[in-house]
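ok trying this again, last paste got cut off
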Amino acid sequence: MSAKTRSATPGPLGQDQTHSVARQREGSRPLARQGESSPSASAEEDKLKKKEKDLSGAINTGVASKEERHKDRTKSFVSQEIWSAVSMVFPSIYVHYAGAPASEAARRPETVWLMAYATYAHCLASVLYHLHCAYNSGSNFNHFRSPFRTADMALIHVCCYAYGVALSGGLWFLDAVSLAANTICIASLLWRCIKGAPSTSQDSVRAIGCVLIYS
């Protein structure tokens, strides 16, 4: 065998090297394929990204709409409280102009002025309470803990007694019943305020009961 033929024919060691190189080439092909993404996988990734984007947009839209609704409710609440404060001034204006003629015609003119002064006092407390609520709108404000609410409700009971005295015609036992009921309600309001306990919705029920007494 010639030298040229021996150099062209690989020996055992050359065969091993040749097979090793071939195996490396074949092994590198699947690795390259693993790095590549198939069309179906790309489509799935695009769908997932689109879903995530749509979900994020829906969440942001929901949060924005919730904030808008909260702002609208806050504006409505402020307007309501301001109107309530303004509306409480009208009875005092009426009493101011009608008090003098009514006292001149009344059999007990002092009771008319008692009613007028009670109306003025309640007007002041009620206006402060409603403005306090409007100022704290949009926060975690609890109106049952407002000291102005205590003053508002207490002066409602003062008005109930004053109006009852003006309308009772001098019947002392009606005045006594009204005085006792309203005093108990006022004491309850003040006691809870001093203790730092919040008022309750039952305060309004008791006020209605005292209104029925003088009615």
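PB: full thing came through this time. Residues 1-11, 28-32 have pLDDT under 50 and may be disordered.
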